[in-house]
Amino acid sequence: MTTATMMDVPLTIDQLIDRAERWMGDAEVVSRRPDRSLHRTTYRAIAQRARRLARALVGAKIRPGDRVATLMWNHAEHLEAYFGIPLAGGVTHTLNLRLHPDEIAYIANDAGDRILLVDDVLYPLYEKVVASGARFERVVVVGCARDQYEALLADAPDDAMLPTLAETDALGTCYTSGTTGKPKGVVYSHRSTMLHTIVMLSPDTLGLGRADTIMPVVPMFHVNAWGLPFAAAMTGAKLVFPGPYLDAASLLELLAGERVTIAAGVPTIWLGIREALDAAPGRYALAPGLRMVVGGSAAPEQLIRDFDRLGMTLLHAWGMTETSPIGLVSRVPPQLADADEALRYQLRAKQGVPPPLVDVVVRNEAGEVAHDDRTSGELLVRGPWVSGAYVGGHSPDRWTADGWFRTGDVARVDAYGIVQLTDRVADLIKSGGEWIASVELENALMGHPAVREAAVIGAPHPKWSERPIAVVVLKPGQTATTDELRAFLAVRFPKFWVPDAVELVEAIPRTSAGKFKKTELRDTYRQYFDSLA
User: Fold this and answer.
1) Which stretch of DSSP H or E encloses residue 486?
2) What is the C-alpha separation between 236 and 212, in angstroms, rounded?
3) Rounded average pLDDT over 67-89
4) What is the CATH number of domain 13-236?
């Protein structure tokens, strides 16, 4: 029997940062500070400081597998923690600063976080988290007047021995947003993270390279900023962090001033960018062909068209905390490059196909659905960076007997093998025994020239069980009547799909991940049709 003769080199994060230091050490890492100034450093300095942080943590008796939490915006010190904590054998736990303090406290205690790194500007939030019951053995403040982080690095023992890492070791943990019960923990390994990072670079995934300048607008506490900090370090690409300033003007200033070539964020970020560009044409000299990855929730087709008009490209991707997160990426197949424009935009607005090493299937009660772009089922996914369990063994029913993760997303597949998510299982509206997909109605409404955002929910109805209600935010300076918006949908969908009511509002509530908070909307409109009883 012939055996393989390849070296057995573990896939661990130290290889990534060592390579960045040795071969791309001069590449820049730029951070927006709370005082709006720009801080500039390099991968070489990041690597050296990350090792000092690792030695300091070992000196503080952090043991392999211990959780070290961060409560921080996107900046260079957070990147140092991304590498320094796992180099010490610890597990980086990024706390979501947009959650309620009670939720943050629950998550920190559930994870067993021992040490917390917290931004000085977030110290008031930290105090509320502690008041809600969170307990940390040690807290290190980063930045500004109360800074303790630099002293921690300066006092790192030079003789502290860093552990030898295994690719199966835990690297980081994130918690789900808790939209279906208590937040649940997902733990990423060195191996899963390294494989996810390598595949992110491929041309059919995000196509990242050393010549890029990458700006993660998506927070580093949101599924590791979709893996972009690791991918940037792996390629040696310049990295730009926006800090706490996520308004359109601040982001555009960075996009233009740092010549960013690819950025990533949720649809609300790009809606604001589009409006700012339309309001001040020619004001910002952006890098030609700027690519923008959009995820977190579906981007309407009209937004994709608008950015093409502006000379920029919006790239649709889908993922979850449980998938590290990249599970689908939308690109038009090469054989359709010259196809009808309407078809190409329709395909780009879908979630796409899985990247290498990830497999997906759409199943309903009858089995795997036909690729007919009509038959729906639940999206299931598996792969080397897909979680096989939650911390503590919660919700084992999320995994099938044959090893697939049940996403809770309703999807269908077209003849080209491209997946489109049509709704969350929990958000489907059942009216008169028939299903209505809220996301499809939302995306159609956001194609109306006067509509900025739209969310559709089902409200209890005395006759039909549920009927859809559309909650709509209009663009600044635009007008539209509710009858006009219902008529706009009536020519596109079956009659029973058209919402019985359209409510015009100033803003739609959102979750910490930027998704529509439909639980709150359903509570608000729960008695909407009671008068019909």
Assistant:
1) helix 482-490
2) 9
3) 98
4) 3.40.50.12780
Return contacts of 152-156, CB within 8 angstroms, 24+ apart: 152/53, 152/56, 153/49, 153/52, 153/53, 153/56, 155/56, 155/59, 156/52, 156/53, 156/55, 156/56, 156/59
Other residues' Cβ atoms within 10 Å of the Cβ of residue 150: 12
Instruction: Report whether 65 contacts 170 (CB < 8 A).
Output: yes
* 242 secondary structure, DSSP code: -
Using H for helix, E for strand and C for coil, what is the string for 132-193? CCCCCCEEEEECCCCCCHHHHHHCCCCCCCCCCCCCCCEEEEEECCCCCCCCCEEEEEHHHH
Where along the chain do its domains lie? 13-236, 428-532
Average pLDDT over residues 56-62: 97
474 dihedral zone (left: phi>0; alpha: psi -120 to 50; beta) = beta
Report the candidate in 228, 199, 189, 196 with the shortest Cα–Cα distance to residue 78: 228
Per this entry, what is the length of the chain? 533
Q: Which residues are catalytic?
A: 176, 322, 430, 435
pLDDT tens, residue by residue, 500-524: 999 999 999 998 878 899 999 999 9
- Find the helix or strand (DSSP H, E) in which 50 lies: helix 43-59
In 258-387, alpha helices (H): 267-279, 301-309, 341-348
pTM of the model: 0.90
DSSP per residue, 507-530: ---B-TTS-B-HHHHHHHTTTTTG
Q: Which two tokens stand for residue 247?
A: 């308004």
- Average pLDDT of the chain is 95
Other CB atoms within 10 A of residue 30 CB: 21
Residue 283's Cβ-count burial label (10 Å; 0-12, 13-18, 19+) is exposed
d(CA 96, CA 80): 18
Distance of CA 19 to the CA centre of its chain: 26
120-149 core/surface letters (b: 16 or more CB in 10 A; e: else) = bbbbebbeebbebebebeeebbbbeeeeeb
Top CATH class of 428-532 equals alpha beta
